[in-house]
Amino acid sequence: MRRELFHVLNIGIIILFGLMFCTVQSVLFRTQLLSFISLDLVLLLTLFIGFKRPIIEGVLLVVVIGHFAEIHSGAPAGMLMSCYLLCYAATVLTREFFLMESELSIILLGASGGVLWKISFLVLAYFMDILPNVWRASILFLPPYLVALGLCTRPLFSLILKIDRATGVEEPSELGLY
Amino acid sequence: MWNIIKEYRHYIVAALIIMMPLVALNSGTKSPAPLMWFNKAAVRLTAPAQSVLTWAINKTWESVENYFFLLNVRQYNVELLSQNRKLMNELASFREVALENKRLRKLVRFSRSLAGHKITAKVIAQDLLPEFRTLRLNKGDKDGVSRGMAVVTHEGIVGRIIRVDKNYSDVLTLLDSSSNVAGLVQRNRTHGVVEGYTDNLLRMKHVRRTDDVRNGDDIISSGIGTLFPKGIVIGKVISVHKQKHGITQTIEIYPSVDFSRLEEVIIIKPEANIKISTAALTEPDMNEKKK
To answer: What is the ipTM of this complex?
Structure first.
């Protein structure tokens, strides 16, 4: 019973993290000084969920967090959620097929997640007929965006993992770095 | 007698030596006698050494004195720096208040020129992603904001309300791709539809190819659709694209509103009877006039 309660608490914390990341992203990383970084903390959280959570729980979490992202953005409904879900699915596949034991693999996971997110976003933008308006900003911010994602993946994963350990959540995969 | 002298010779010599200065004092020569050669030699030897020693002592003393003095100066400097920082902070906040005051005065002057229901709001956040251009305002349903209301500033049109919460609302800015506003070239009254194009440009479409539109022309809201009052500035034409064939031309516009620095806005109800005085947009501030 206690374990289940802690698990629910952990889910609540992850959702709160999603909200907090949306807030930080829309305020701090949109200031003139930091706007060029355009760090996507929500994507990193999605990648973590894909990396460390059972599939059903992970999908539900990504749907909730993707929805939070959408209510903090002017993106067409469903667009961001689709991109985040795609990145989540790709991470699940990655964790099934690849052994991620090094720091570099985690950094690469963050950066490649960023590339996949941008590609899926631009493809959806093309089909939604908003590509001419968004591709410029996407490409312009891509290099600092990927660097920031790569650098922040490891510290963020460690932070959330500490919470996982504190709340006694069992890790679904034994393959991971930690 | 000789034996006595021999016995007390030490005392006698000592007494004579003691008396020698007394003799010199009693001689009556007040002015110093010129130095003899051996005195000169001695002086030439000792003077440089004296000089070096004096310099060394002076320097040492000076250093010690300076050290203790600097200790005080350092402390004094720390106090001054702290005071300076405090004053700079106060100055910055006063400057911020002054700038806010200036902005709000412009906004109020502009607001007076608008009829109907107006709500002043602050921008509290931007879009989550750089690809989209929405803003979050600190006024919502509770303050009378509803979906579809127009958002403007003294610089021009900002956008329209797309989402409303109890205390917050989201604005779809003109820069966003899904934003459309009926526009008008102020010089020759050519109509078109203005929409978001890139992260800092707008595009006017559905303009007849034969219409004369030039770089630098002002684009204002046409008032069609009653969402935005007629005559509010949208931006300036920066380029005109005419294809070899076709019946329309596309115009690129630089928006008059600096969306990256937007802090306060006015939300207005889409009422048909809203009128705007263009003089209010150009009339300089009374205080600025005085300056």
So the answer is: 0.72
